[in-house]
Amino acid sequence: MNETSHARRGRRAPRQAGALEQMPWRIPLNTDAPTEPIGPDGVEAIHRGVMAILRDIGIEFLNDEALALFRQAGCKVEGQNVRMDEDFVMEMLDRAPGPFPITPRNPDRQIIIGGKHIVFVNVSSPPNSWDMIRGKRSGDFDTFRDFMKLTQYFNCIHVAGGYPVEPIDIHPSVRHLDCLYEKLTLTDKVVHAYSLGRERVEDVMEMVRIAGGLSDEAFRDTPRMYTNINSVSPLKHDFPMIDGALRCARAGQAVIVTPFTLAGAMAPVTLAGAVALSLAEGLSAIALLQYAAPGCPVGFGTFTSNVDMKSGAPAFGTPEYMRATQISGQMARFYGLPLRSSGTCTSNIPDAQAMWETSNSLWAAVQSGSNLVYHAAGWLEGGLIASPEKFVLDCEVLQMIQRYMEPPLWQTAPEDIALDAIAEVGPNGHYFGCAHTQERYTKAFYSPIASDWRNYEAWELAGAEDSIARGHRISREIIENFTPPPMDEGIREELSDFVARRKAEGGAPTDF
To answer: Are 352 and 346 in contact (CB under 8 A)?
Structure first.
């Protein structure tokens, strides 16, 4: 695919006035009743299964500190296998705070995780990128910075999560230092730390503290950042992620525990079995964190989907993925935990498959009552590719979801039923010019980013720019005209000095 194929007959589409309009920053509230595929008996059956896994089969913890804590708590520890009874698990879950805020260096960008709040996170952790000019290539630092600019620009992206693309041209020992410096200076949104060893987690916590101009006490007083950890399905937690989670929890920072269970591969092929396994893995880690740091902010993440049984490849945005997400939402509410899910697809380019699978995933997040939605913009090839064009197109979907949640769409006051306007226009007029329409037209909240609502002839006349080309153009306009958010120069210098010192000390080890 090349640029010419997206600008028919060699004609470039002209710059469109207002192409970069978007909705203002806000945290959407999801007031819809959640979709609940299983009844109370089904919830109880899965709960019983989860407790049986934890009591009779156990979870492997490859972390000596975790094993010592479980022994101290009275759990049954044999080697690296930990078994825990229902009373212990439920007592620990009762300690979890439920909804909690995360306040970044710009307090106006504070988010709430839990309740009816839903916030969206950029694409995180692909090793590769793809755009319509250069195709697929390994991640690099320049591309990482481009994605951080997109993350900051779009108001419908609330969190600068993991690395939007892994910059392999930066040595792994210092990569976290360079990446977090760019995150904290190019954005003013909530950031996250990868739990990949003590140094990486503690460096990020210190950099977030510096960027916020905070004392140690103020940093620890309320969540300022978070980490997301994954289990090693089936039935295992590794050393570095549990280590990082414990460090964050003890520092008052949030931890999201997200098992990655693919039905038929790393989990039972039945959705109920896959969800039960995922919950057992997640709750075991959350119980550990609540024992070590009572009341620490935590959430449960679902990443349960199916695989193509012919090839073994993951499948996302499928009916199975949607149902697993909805059921996980039911169970998260049962346990009183905020829920994380994801916007996902397996398509290799930003085509129709990419958009229908991502839309299915995002609407499953809405239906499940998810509070934190990872990979909401830019994800391709099952998480192996990040695409700027896809980022723009996904933000269009996110704006539609956000607009869908705005109260004006379902208000039923007399002025909304509009009997006076209906009588005024009658059977032979139209509503474009009537006062009722004109008074409300300027109050519309949805501003299209990448949609093209012209007819075919007008589209042809303008250059026949398709959605991928439009996404490419818009992403380049944003990147090339980007202005970073303000930061005090003293704080910037302190942050830079910290990075330089930690690099001189060798950064972080690259083995665990």
So the answer is: no
pLDDT at 441 over 80: no
Q: How far apart are CA 331 and CA 325, in angstroms?
A: 10
Q: Using the predicted structure, report yes or no on whether residue 15 has a pLDDT greater than 70.
A: no
**CB distance 106 to 299 below 8 Å:** no
Kindly state the DSSP code that residue 418 receives in the 8-state scheme: T
> pLDDT tens-digit profile of 285-319?
999 999 999 999 999 999 999 998 888 889 999 99
SS3 label, residue 494: helix
DSSP notation for 376-390:
EESEEGGGTEE-HHH
193, β-bridge pairs: 227
Q: How far is CA 395 from CA 18, 136, 424, 485, in A?
A: 16, 21, 38, 20
What is the pTM assigned to this prediction? 0.94
User: Which of 370, 367, 324, 321 is CA-nearest to residue 344?
Assistant: 321
CA dihedral 68, 74, 76, 81 (to 10 degrees): -30
- Report the share of the chain in percent with pLDDT over 90: 89
Place of tokens 């009658």: 426
Specify the pLDDT at position 512. 56
Assess whether the previous peptide bond of 234 is cis (omega < 30° from 0): yes
| Rounded to 5°, angle at Cα 461 from 457 and 466 | 85
Q: Read off the DSSP letter of residue 29.
A: B
User: How far from each other are the two terminal CA atoms of the chain, in whole angstroms?
Assistant: 41
CB 340 within 8 A of CB 228: yes
What residues does each domain of the chain span?
Answer: 3-15+416-476, 93-406
Fold observed for domain 93-406: TIM Barrel (3.20.20)
